[in-house]
């Protein structure tokens, strides 16, 4: 019988990483000097999640999908993705600006033999004063203008920069130029893909190699959406003791749940696994068969598609992201 699953955290040392994974989220990443990302639910080759607790402890997510198929992921999800788990969940600590980058869409990624594209979203969990990020351009830009700006090292002049505070959501479809700014701790929900085209890296030098990191400026040109949009920050209104939709896309739906009282959730109509990501406070997830799992800020659980009812019991105030495949 399947039950709410938690996984061992995969820690990633990054040139721009810091200490908040430890100091804010309470995860010990020793012996790494810093930690830029934790991968919490992953089916990326070489970084496949392993079950942490219960009867399935030690099994990989890939093994579970192959064994349980639609029981784990849902009938329509399995028909669409087969044995490939479609979402990747991360926490990111930017102690410095990340590189300016873009991800291809599915069509371009497949053309180039790199599997799937990457549409993603960010939920800001903590922000230092004055923290900012980039999403898209600050005006309409032609491909030629963009290429010239990269060549002239003036790319930053055409980027849309947004202030960011806890609770903010940014949806980033494939093709949108972006970077996470210094001082932000966030949860990231994305397609299962590790394909990134790095455009500019602020001339940083890797302390280990003494080299600048590789750029992918030519690959990025045909991946970019050059349009300017009126709104880059996702508009939603958080409500106490309510589930509010923040993002609806072809790849995932994400709701923001803010509760201080017990709530029963029925997933009968979804036909998908659900991932619950705790981004504030703490809670216990109770499921049939006496299964329960406790989460605190910076932890998440995968609810298999066959587990159709859960009760969320908050430990005081809690904020949880609820994401699934539509």
UniProtKB/TrEMBL annotation:
Annotated ranges, domain Mannose-6-phosphate isomerase cupin: 245-317
GO MF terms held by the record: mannose-6-phosphate isomerase activity; zinc ion binding
Binding site for Zn(2+): 103, 120, 178
UniProt KW keywords: Isomerase, Metal-binding, Zinc
Limits of the Phosphomannose isomerase type I catalytic domain: 8-111
Recorded superkingdom: Bacteria
Residues at the active site: 198
GO biological processes: carbohydrate metabolic process
Necessary cofactors: Zn(2+)
Cofactor note: Binds 1 zinc ion per subunit.
Protein name, as recorded: Phosphohexomutase
């Amino acid at each position: 019988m399947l039950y709410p699953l938690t996984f061992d955290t995969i820690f990633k040392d990054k040139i721009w990483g810091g200490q908040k994974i430890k100091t804010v989220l309470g995860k010990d990443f020793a012996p790494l000097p810093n930690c830029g990302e934790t991968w919490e639910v992953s089916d990326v080759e070489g970084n496949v999640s392993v079950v942490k607790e219960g009867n399935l402890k030690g099994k990989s997510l890939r093994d579970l999908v192959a064994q349980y198929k639609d029981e784990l992921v849902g009938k329509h999800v399995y028909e669409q993705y087969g044995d490939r788990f479609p979402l990747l969940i991360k926490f990111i600590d930017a102690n410095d600006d990340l590189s300016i980058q873009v991800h291809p869409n599915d069509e371009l990624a497949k053309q180039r033999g790199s599997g799937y594209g990457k549409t993603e979203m960010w939920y800001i969990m903590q922000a230092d004063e004055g923290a900012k990020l980039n999403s898209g351009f600050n005006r309409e830009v032609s491909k030629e203008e963009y290429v010239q700006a990269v060549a002239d090292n003036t790319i930053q002049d055409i980027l849309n920069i947004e202030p960011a505070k806890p609770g903010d959501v940014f949806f980033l479809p494939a093709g949108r130029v972006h970077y996470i700014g210094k001082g932000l701790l966030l949860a990231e929900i994305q397609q299962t893909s590790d394909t990134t085209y790095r455009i500019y890296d602020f001339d940083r030098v890797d302390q280990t190699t003494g080299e600048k990191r590789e750029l992918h400026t030519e690959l990025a040109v045909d991946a970019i959406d050059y349009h300017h949009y009126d709104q880059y920050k996702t508009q939603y209104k958080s409500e106490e003791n309510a589930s509010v939709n923040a993002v609806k896309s072809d790849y995932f739906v994400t709701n923001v749940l803010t509760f201080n009282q017990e709530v029963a959730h029925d997933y009968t109509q979804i036909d998908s696994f659900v991932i619950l990501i705790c981004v504030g406070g703490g809670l216990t997830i109770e499921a049939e068969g006496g299964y329960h799992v406790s989460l605190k800020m910076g932890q998440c659980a995968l609810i298999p598609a066959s587990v159709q009812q859960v009760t969320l019991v908050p430990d005081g105030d809690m904020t949880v992201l609820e994401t699934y495949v539509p």
